Amino acid sequence: MAETNLNETPAGNRPKIAIAGCRNAGKSSFINALTGQDIAIVSDVPGTTADPVYKPMEILPLGPVMIIDTAGLDDSGKLGRLRIAKTESVIKTSDFVFHIIAGDRGITAFDKKILKGIVEKNISCAIVINKIDISQKKISIPKEYSKIPVFRVSSLTKSGIEEIKNRLPEVFPQKRERFIIADLIQGGDIVVLVVPIDLSAPKGRLILPQVQTIREILDSDSIH
Question: Which of 19, 116, 175, 218 is the residue whose CA sits 20 to 30 A from 87?
Fold first, then answer.
């Protein structure tokens, strides 16, 4: 069995970036352009992305992040409603959302509904007007969303992608400090650690979450 690399950033410590929007807005193409890898399936068939797809990546200058490709929020039918529910759940727990709008369609009623939900939940986001290579349509952003950063890109030609990367530190929320146990204990507390040992556990050493927990206990001046 391959050993876990302690230098790898655990999924729980990576800021979550959700890619949301209507079907065929170019969400998967945008992910591939932003990351420089073909990690999302691209198709002209609406509803290609059925379930959220999580992909740990490193995007400079942010560093390690978790990119989440989601189903279109204008999906239909019984299965479509289930997909929408999963996408909404992803958005609620994300640190940042790129809302993708198809440049050849403009802002739809669904787009406005999505943006309203993101703003009401106080989630940091940016609007990405995609497909500018096939449409130069002027798209006006409603006044209530005028403070949201807007980028015009072509995921196909990569136009505008570099600007997004350069401005990520400016538009991305401040990194939240995440703890395993440090926010539950204080100096002098006695902490009992129960370490499960099974056949799949690395022999003779602790796994990364256990090491992180011990580190937090020591930094809090607690006893274990």
Answer: 175
